[in-house]
Each structure stands twice: as C-alpha cells, then as structure tokens.
Amino acid sequence: MKIATYNVNGVNGHLPVLLRWLNETKPDVVCLQELKAPQEKFPEEAIRNTGYNAIWHGQKSWNGVAILTRNLEIKEIQRALPGDPEDIHSRYIEALVNGIHVGCLYLPNGNPAPGPKFDYKLSWFKRLTVHAKELLTKDIPIVLVGDYNVIPTERDVYKPERWIDDALFRPETRAAFEELLMQGWTDAIRKLYPEDKIYTFWDYFRNAYGRDAGLRIDHFLLSPQLEKHLIAAGVDRHVRGWEKTSDHAPVWIELNESLY
Fold it and tell me: Is 248 annotated as a binding residue?
C-alpha cells in the first residue's frame, strides 16, 4: 500500500500537475494540503475521472486539506483539529482508510516570529500533540501526515544558519516536533534514511530547486502499529521541476501487505 502527501499550493492552479502525477504514480492514498479553494470549488470531477475518491475541507484563498483514495473506501472521522471550536482554518481532516487511521494536516507557517502568527502555530501544535496522544491510546494503525512547516534538524535544511530565526526552525518549533515524536511516533523518512540529505520543498526564488537549496518539512509520523510495516519511502522530487508546479514535491511511503 502506497500513501503519499503533497502540498499542491493551489489545487486548481496546479491541477494539471496533480493529475499528471496521480496518473504516473497511482498511490493508493493521497493527502493534499494548501488547496486554496472554497469547498464548492474543489475539482472533484477531474479527480474522480483520474480514478480517485475524495473528501476535503476547503477554504477560500487559503489553507485547505483533502484525502484521496484509489479503489478504497474513505470513512470521514472529522474535519477539524479538536481543542478550539473557534478556529475556522481548514488545516486538518481525518479518515479511516483500509483499516488505517489517516490524519492529514497543514500546520501553520508561523512567520513572522515572534508574533501572533507564531503564537498560533505553537497553540495549534499543542492541540495536535494532545490529539495525537489520544489517538495512540486506541492501539490502531495511524499515520499523521502532511506539511508540518517544521525543519526538524540541521540536516533537513540547506544552510541552516540562514534559518535560525524562521518560525519553521526556531527552537520552540523543533522542540514541539520532538515532543510529538517522543509520544511514540516514528518519522518514516528518517527511519529508513537516518543520515541522507532529503528535501521536500524548494522556494520559487533564487533558483532554489536548481541549486538544491531545500527544506524537509513534509512528514509522515507512524504509530507503533504501522511503523513495523514500513518498507519504503521517498520523494518524487522531479515533480518539483515540472512547469507550473508547486514549491513542494510529493512524498510517499509504502507499507507491506502483512498489515492486512
């Protein structure tokens, strides 16, 4: 079973790239972030014509998350992160897919930091940490996947000294991510590639992709029940080189069939 995540940076503006990638790679489950489309503008028909079912939580101009499945039923669980009923940002959607609990998330960027946006990022992170801990008590296969807007360590960024004051790399952000991992989650990419240089995002400016000046900010966190079934993981970095593409590349994992 192949599960992928992709911050599309505008699902309609980058729809040809998304559909091309789906047709080429055919992952079983896809988590999308940054749809930048209201609920009624999600391109459901085009995605269904590619062979995928979809659930989504849109928002005009900003945010937005979706879960797509190929030949698999999606049972939606919730479409908001618990803990703040007044938070109207479309940043989280959760579903049961083929026996796996899938949480698709788009964690706030937080810049400029310090400031209100960074405070919101840390507050959202705390809510995620509480919810993640509760999920682990269920003793079921779980993946929390998406754009975390977190650079976990220095090896996850080109020239880390330039990112010291950025909300993605500040000590508070990295500490929050580490606290989440310490609950018992496994960073899938680092499980298989503990020392490799792996990036998932390259800015549009200063020829970042051409220079390979990237960041690793899109992550798969696996529960103990799922971690033992991990057999492969990678980044479809070539997609970042396509015309009119997102500034992120798709990231994926594969799970062995013994899970079922």
Answer: yes
State yes or no: is 199 an active-site residue: no
Name the phi and psi angles at 203, rounded to 5.
Answer: -60, 155
Q: Is 147 a catalytic residue?
A: yes
Contact 249, 235 (CB under 8 A): yes
Q: Is 248 a catalytic residue?
A: yes
| Enclosing H/E stretch for 130 | helix 116-136
247 is in an annotated binding site: yes
List 6, 52, 92, 106, catalytic entry: 106
Tell me which residue of 153, 104, 107 sits closest to 6, measured CA to CA. Answer: 104
| Reported pTM | 0.97
Mean pLDDT by 10 residues, the chain (260 residues): 98 98 98 98 98 97 96 96 96 97 98 98 98 96 98 98 97 98 98 98 97 98 97 98 98 86
Q: Is 229 annotated as a binding residue?
A: no
Distance CA 157, CA 174 (A): 13
Q: Catalytic residue among 14, 89, 131, 248, which?
A: 248
45 marked ligand binding residue: no
In 83-237, where do the E strands start and end?
A: 92-97, 100-106, 142-147, 186-187, 201-202, 214-215, 218-222, 230-235
**Active-site position among 147, 156, 166, 218:** 147
12 is in an annotated binding site: no
The amino acid present at 82, given as its one-letter code, is P
Domains and CATH numbers, the chain: 2-259 (3.60.10.10)
